[in-house]
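chain below, 206 aa
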Amino acid sequence: TDLSPAMLAVAQARAGEEGLENIAVRAIPAEDLDFVQGSFDAAVSSFTLMLIADPVSVARRIHRFLRPGGRFAVSVWATPDKVPMLSMPAQIIFSELGIAPPSPEGPGLFALGDPSRLERVLEEAGFSQVSVWPLPYRFRFEKADDYGVFIRDVAIVLSGLVAEHAPKRQEEIWEKVAAFGRERAAPDGSLTFENEAFMATGTRFS
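prediction:
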């Protein structure tokens, strides 16, 4: 499930490439997920939980969908200084739009960058044996120009802000993001970012 049709299209394509026929994709907000209690052995949230206004409520909802012994695995981005791939274009966009970055306490790309807060979210949702650990996350683009396209397509929070606040300047703003990538390209034209994320797991025992 995802809000981005582009992301769902990638998932569907990869499933087809692997010959997997027991996969369904749905464009639906995490807050609206609705399955029978105890439907799953495991659930995965990939760089989504930090974007949700009430992550505890969504994690609690997922807790209900799991069978006893089921596990929940979550990935989120670390703090902005450790995720230049996203924090730098975010700074460019906030500056161009003349708006303030979201509060660290609210939903946003880096809202769960404090591992202790991520741990509390899962524990308050009812999960036991919660573990959180850092995950180095390298992104390499063969061509620097691919970076701007990637951010525009995948970072739907940023894309939404640009579309909402500067609908007539979208191409201009995204060109500035692309230029940031080109300025930092290696001699062979590639672009690499060293980022950090956090992984967390929890288990439903009852």
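The chain has a mean pLDDT of 94. The first strand starts at residue 40 and ends at 46.
thats it, cya
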